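Quick one:
INPUT:
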């Protein structure tokens, strides 16, 4: 049998304890960093998915310039024929769907980034609620969405109408 030096055993025991003492906190810190990164990646994924839908809608606005559906309303909207009215209704319904997604993802969040996102979406939705063609489209297809979102939209429409009446 081989004789092992006690000093070497003591040193190995000390190294073993040091690895445990320092390794565990480092592992915990790494775990929380990874979780935080995963959460941030999910948030960016949410933002990117919604942004892609919004950009698709913007392309549709570009493809249908005769419709009054772009962010900035036409000063003198064109009188639409029946087919164009249907196109406008369909495109506004797509926009409602984007708004619904933003509402469901951001409206009741406590995270600072998501709260800021919601403030922007809420302002954007309110700007559309000042437009007669948007309100007409909502009246036609607004009852097909999440009930909380529908209640939010109805509340915003009332609030915007009150504000419009004062100006």
């Amino acid at each position: 049998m081989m004789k092992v030096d006690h000093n070497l055993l003591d040193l190995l025991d000390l190294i073993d304890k040091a690895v445990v003492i320092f390794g565990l906190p480092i592992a915990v810190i790494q775990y929380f960093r990874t979780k935080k990164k995963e959460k941030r990646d999910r948030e960016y994924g949410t933002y990117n998915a919604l942004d892609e839908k919004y950009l698709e809608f913007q392309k549709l606005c570009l493809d249908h310039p005769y419709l009054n559906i772009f962010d900035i309303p036409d000063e003198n909207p064109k009188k639409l024929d029946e087919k164009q009215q249907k196109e406008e209704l369909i495109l506004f319904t797509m926009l409602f769907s984007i708004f619904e997604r933003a509402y469901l993802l951001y409206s009741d969040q406590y995270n600072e980034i998501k709260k800021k996102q919601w403030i922007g979406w809420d302002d954007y939705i309110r700007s559309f609620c000042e437009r007669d063609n948007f309100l007409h489209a909502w009246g036609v297809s607004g009852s097909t969405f999440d009930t909380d979102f529908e209640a939010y939209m109805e509340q915003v429409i009332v609030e915007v109408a009150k504000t419009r009446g004062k100006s």
